[in-house]
Amino acid sequence: MFGIGTHELLLILLVVLVIFGAKKLPEIGSGLGKAIRNFRQASTEPDEIDITPKGEKKNIEDEGKNA
Hints:
Structural class: mainly alpha
Oligomer: single chain
Shape: elongated
């Protein structure tokens, strides 16, 4: 239904090259790669942020073992 062939890809790349220029393409690619990497990292990280200080966190874990 939505097949993109070789000719279509070449046409799209040519239009992008004409619009942005050859010097901007690496910057655009780098920015897109960083955005995708950050999105993947954010989607795999837990939603909660642990704000417990390190010393108290250890004490809380020790109390849980003793209970």
